[in-house]
Write a structure and sequence with these properties.
Layout lengths: L15 H10 L5 H12 L13 H10 L6 E7 L5 E7 L3 E8 L10 E4 L3 E3 L14 E4 L2 H14 L2 E6 L9 H14 L7 E5 L3 H7 L7 E5 L5 H7 L8 H15 L3 E7 L7 H11 L4 E7 L13 H13 L3 E4 L13 H5 L5
Parallel strand pairs: 4-7, 7-8, 8-9, 9-10, 10-11, 11-12
Antiparallel strand pairs: 1-2, 2-3, 3-4, 5-6
Helix pairs in contact: 1-2, 4-5, 6-8, 9-10
Bound molecules: S-adenosyl-L-homocysteine and iron/sulfur cluster.
């Protein structure tokens, strides 16, 4: 995994081979690296001192010479439904959010869904999104993405993961891909348990699809109309919606996995019945499903949350046209758990 330049090396940032030689150089045996990996990934222990199977002397040497993790937990907020949101700081005061959402009801004991960030800020500039308000600060390194899983695992077992936090994954794909390789092997999350959400740059999707990457794809569409999508997803201005959908079709052909389209419902902007009918026309003949996400108000954007009735009407129009659609009311809203918001509330977005 690549390191962030200038920072001290951490255990997590090293490759498996490097971890073994680092542990041996500090007086341990190479299997001690496996012990640490197990304690970290499977048991959620975030400090050498909390790990069993290591001598006191080795723990002391490791703590002195080889920090486990690069980041720091700056803030934690917990919602009534058990959703925990972490604000993490990495090198250069790079702050990102990670959200841990335990299963509810019958799914309570199955483990949590973890939402991770891929970049510090975002260059795409969607006007309704808190993550992009201040542009892009920097990419996260692969180990900084993996660290979010480590910290999530420390809160409880993980069942699923969504790469839907701060940042645009396809604009930092090398690190995202490297991180997900570790996540699949170290945390045992299979390809169907990981969803990557992107605004869907067509030529990037076409390049990646033949490699059959190990995750589900979600494309943030937000409008059936070229001009409006260009306003809502500015980095995609000039790229026709049909080209994005064709890249989604290509993804399905190549990977055999259906694409999910995300559509943020913005009251009075893209949530009326004509929008629903035009979207249905675009998707009716395709193998795809739609997640309708009622907008989570972000103080600075001026957009409004739709009513439950208009969300239901939008969904009904899609369903009647044969398009499978689900309304996703997001969780943890009362603790600023919508994307990018904790970072802003903590005055940390710059
Ligand atoms: N950059 C990627 C992934 C991160 S955003 C993308 O845009 O897909 C994940 C999802 O959250 C996107 O569908 C995005 O449109 C949505 N989103 C962002 N801000 C939101 C808000 N305030 N309310 C509801 N959904 C939001
Ligand atoms: Fe970036 Fe996604 Fe937010 Fe748009 S919605 S600004 S692409 S994080």
């Amino acid at each position: 995994m690549n390191e962030t330049s200038g920072s001290p090396t951490t255990f997590l940032a090293l490759s498996q081979a490097e971890r073994r030689s680092a542990v041996t150089a500090l007086g341990g045996r190479s299997f001690h690296a496996d012990v640490i990996e197990r304690e970290l990934f499977q048991n959620g222990r975030l400090a050498y001192d909390a790990m069993s199977g290591l001598s006191k002397a080795l723990r002391a040497a490791l703590a002195r010479e080889l920090p486990l993790l690069a980041g720091e937990e700056v803030e934690r907020s917990e919602a009534r439904d058990g959703t925990v949101k972490l604000l993490l700081a990495f090198e250069g005061n790079a702050r990102v959010e990670t959200v841990f959402m335990p299963g509810l009801g019958a799914k309570k004991d199955l483990g949590a869904t973890l939402c991770v960030s891929t970049q510090v800020g975002c260059a795409v500039g969607c006007p309704f999104c808190a993550s992009g308000l201040f542009g892009l600060q920097r990419n996260l390194a692969a180990h900084e993405i993996v660290e979010q899983y480590v910290r999530g695992r420390a809160l409880g077992p993980l069942r699923r993961s969504v790469v839907m936090g701060i940042g645009e994954p396809l604009l930092n794909y090398t690190a995202v891909d490297a991180a997900l390789v570790c996540v699949r092997s170290d945390f045992g999350l299979g390809a169907r348990k990981i969803t990557v959400s992107t605004v869907g740059f067509p030529e990037r999707l076409r390049r990646i699809a033949p490699l059959r990457p190990g995750f589900q794809l979600a494309i943030s569409l937000h409008s059936p109309d070229d001009d409006e999508r260009g306003r809502l997803v500015p980095a995609m201005a000039g790229i026709p919606v049909e080209e994005v959908l064709a890249a989604g079709d290509f993804w399905f052909e190549q990977t055999g996995r259906e694409v999910t389209y995300e559509y943020v419902l913005l009251a009075g902007t893209n949530d009326d019945e004509p929008h629903a009918r035009r979207l249905a026309e675009r998707l009716a003949r395709r193998r795809a499903t739609v997640n309708l996400i009622p907008y989570n108000p972000v103080a600075t954007t001026g957009e409004r949350r739709p009513s439950a009735e208009s969300a239901a009407t939008f969904q009904r129009i899609l369903s009647e046209a044969g398009v499978v659609a689900t309304v996703r009311w997001s969780r943890g809203v009362e603790t600023d758990a919508a994307c990018g918001q904790l970072r802003i509330a903590a005055g940390a977005a710059r």
